[in-house]
Amino acid sequence: MNSAMFxxxxxxxxxxxxxxxxxxxxxxxxxxxxxxxxxxxxxxFMLGAYFVFWGITLGQLPWPVAMAIAIAVTASLGVLVDQxxxxxxxxxxxxxxxxxxxxxxxxxxNVAIVFFQAIPREVYRPQWLENPILMGGVRVLPLTLFVPxxxxxxxxxxxxxxxxxxAGLGMRAISKDIxxxxxxxxxxxxxxxxxxxxxxxxxxxxxxxxxxRYPQLQPIMGTIPGFKAFxxxxxxxxxSIPGAVIGGLALGFIEIMTVxxxxxxxxxxxxxxxVLLILVLMVKPTGLLGERLEDxx
Amino acid sequence: MRRGQTILLNCLAVTAAGxxxxxxxxxxxxxxxxxxxxxxxNVILALSLNLIYGFTGLFSLGHxxxxxxxxxxxxILIMTPDQKDMLFILEPAYDWVQNAQAPFxxxxxxxxxxxxxxxxxxxxxxxxxxxxxxxxxxLGFAEIIRVLANNFPRLTNGALGFKGIPDYAxxxxxxxxxxxxxxxxxxxxxxxxxxxxxxxxxxxxxxxAMGVNVFRYKLLSFCVGAFFAGVGGALLASLLTTxxxxxxxxxxxxxxxxxxxxxxxxxLSGTVMAGIGITVLLEWLRVVENxxxxxxxxxxxxxxxxxxxxxxxxxxxxxxxxEGLMGMRELSWQSLARVFSRGKA
Lengths: 297, 345
Description:
The complex is a heterodimer. Chain A is mainly alpha-helical. Chain A has helices at residues 3-34, 41-57, 63-86, 94-116, 127-130, 142-164, 166-176, 178-183, 188-213, 223-236, 241-261, 269-283, and strands spanning 121-122, 133-135, 138-140, 216-217. Chain A has twelve helices and four strands. A two-stranded antiparallel sheet of chain A has the order 1-4. Chain A has a two-stranded antiparallel ribbon with strand order 2-3. In chain A, a hairpin with a 2-residue loop joins strand 2 (133-135) and strand 3. Helices cover 74% and strands 2% of the residues of chain B. In chain B, strands 1-2 form a two-stranded antiparallel sheet. In chain B, a hairpin with a 2-residue loop joins strand 1 (292-294) and strand 2. Chain B is globular and about 60 Å long. Chains A and B meet through helix 4, helix 10 and helix 12 of A and helix 7, helix 11, helix 13 and helix 16 of B.
């Protein structure tokens, strides 16, 4: 393997990793606050991509406008799902909300099959993302630079919200102790809705960029990336936003580099993440940066 | 009600069910018999999941993986070497796969045992995890099994899967296994072991404090559940006569979870009733996917609508009737007798 190829692979893993990271942030934020694995998150990823597709083809919108609208619509959908399917179950056993989220996930996926049809669709890519540019002798698709940079921008925005605003303070308070937050006057339900909104917006953004990178839309496109992103969140330490980013990037690198160095293993690509998950859970269940969650008696 | 009476009534009920099957075999058309077969298999699968989740509190989403193991092991054993010769076109099968053969009963048991062995292997590291982590890890296990099935063409014929598996699984086999499953699980839960399992479900820390070896009991329940999931998968393979890795997606686990939740976590009679109801409902919902002809107007069928309705039903159940049909209660002869005597008075 020469250095040009190696740089290619590095950029590819950075792209894939940052897409995983964006989705993983949504999982980790919701889990940090509600202790809920939000299965429907992977469907938000898929819906975001479809909304952009329809915005461009039906609405004749320019690409950035379609993206902004799609993210906003998906984010409101995420809030709606929380209000309808999870909020009534706040006091129920934790697994009830999990089962509800599995139900929502299947529901959205099949609604997508009914309305968008199961045939894969081609996605429009802006020309300026497709023409390779030469960078020091390496041919690089602008896309592989654009995706990590835009993801970075989203992540910085998120960190600003979580660590520099009052709403972010509320989020951190709730994830430490939800009952006490109520007592201290934190508007818990509004903050949870906001958390779902932000998490879903990031998933939608990731889905849209995924559709640029791998330009095909199908109703089931969210499932596998969704699982992997969740695993990335566990790997990084669930509940920790930096952990989700590190986990996502690490998973991207592991996947691309393993296939690059051992092409024979390409068929097992989808299993890497799950093997990693089982290993992490066996060795260090709290992940890289996670806090220990004690079982209360 | 005395024990003797209960046993007598149970025997009568089984005889009545047998009589019904005997009549059904001759008078029902193939489609209805197929639905009856699916009912039996779904009940086996749902009972095994209810043992794991409803009675022991282990949130496992790995059922499709256990079913896949059972289905592949059983199919390899019941197909003749000639058949396998024709089937493995990607790469020739391993010799031991090529020559292995067993009668149907042994093949189904082998499928179940293989699944139970897988249950030990994955249960050993994973059962120490908390509930939702266990769910996602077992889901990972099922996905790994699927990826393996895709990538070992000499064992599983890769993505093509098996076709023309002998269709031994008739009404008698399926309902026979259904009865065996019900009997084993009822006996297990009525024994002291069953009490321990329920104690672990209700309060693991307290059970541990009472000196229960929590891990060993969890593993036991997980393996028995995995065994019957493997049996269900084996029967399904022989019933449908074709299997491939795509069949064992998460959707399969989802359908079984739906039956368990609808029937009531921790209620075997609820699971049986929900198993019958949901299997029939799932078949009936095929109507909305096929074109309907109403007074000369043809309404086009909507593919996917079935699962939309189905998943919506799950959400509604979990939101408005979380305990399902039966909650943790059981339908027993005593409770029936009480209903009737109240009617008389």
